Amino acid sequence: MATKLIPCRRFYRNLLAKHRLNLILDWTTLSNHSASDVFTRLSDHAPRTWQRMLSGRRLNLLDPSPLDIEIEDIALGLARNTRWNGQTQGAHAWSVAQHSDFVVDIVRRLNPKASAEVLMAAKLHDASEYVTHDLITPLKAVVGDVFAEVEERLLQAIRLRFGLAPSLSAGTQTLIKSADKIAAATEAVQLAGFSPQEVRSVLEFREKPLHDVKLVPVPVADAEKAFLDGFRVLEAAMTLQNR
Q1: What is the pTM of this model?
Q2: Per-10-residue mean pLDDT for the chain, 243 residues long?
Q3: Which residue from 15, 22, 84, 222 has the highest number of Cβ atoms inside 10 Å of its Cβ?
Q4: CA distance 97 to 126
Q5: Angle formed by the axes of helices 96-110 and 170-190, nearest 10°
C-alpha cells in the first residue's frame, strides 16, 4: 500500500514546492523597496552582513533570501543554541531545538485540531535564532529595535522557505505565544531555578508551568535529530493537507 502512495506524494510534494516558489517570488517583489530601505539603514551597523552555513549557503542577515535557508542548518544551529543563556540544570543544555519541539507539543494541547501549517509555524517560531541566537529578555531590551527588525525579516524568509505565509494571523500568533510562555514557565521552574511564584512576580508570566511533563535536556546530536524528524513529519502533513 505504501508503495502505491509514493508517486502521489511526489506529485503533491512537487506541487507544494512550486507553490512555495511562487510565494517567495511574490514576497521578494513586494518587499524589494522596503528590503532596500532596511538593508541600507541596518548595514550601517556592520561591515559584513552575511554568514556562511555548513550547507554551503551564504545567508545575508539583513536581506535574507528564502532560497538561502536550509532546514539542516536551522536544526544544527538551534540544537547548539541554549535557552536561558545556558544557565539550566543537567549535564546538557536545554536547547532552542528542544524548546521548539516542546512548544509544538503545547500547541497540540491547547488546540488538538491545529492544522499542520499552525504546528509548523510553532516549530519555526524561534528558527531565526539559528543565526541570531537566543538573546535573553533583558539583553533584547538593551539591543532594541535593530535586533527586532533583523529577527522579523529572518522569520519571514524562513516561513516562506517552508511553505508558510510570511506573517502569521493574529489567532495563530496568540496561540503560539501562549504555548511559548507556558513552555518558558515550565522551563523556568524545572531547569532554570525559578520558583512558581517567581514565574509570575519576576518573569511576569500569567501562564502556569506544566506539572505533568518532565523536561530532560539531551545531547546536541539527539536534539538536532529530534527537531529534523519532527519537521519531516509536519512537512509531510502539510503536503497532504494541501492536496
Answers
A1: 0.81
A2: 43 53 56 54 65 94 93 98 95 98 98 98 97 77 74 95 96 98 98 97 95 97 98 96 83
A3: 84
A4: 9
A5: 120
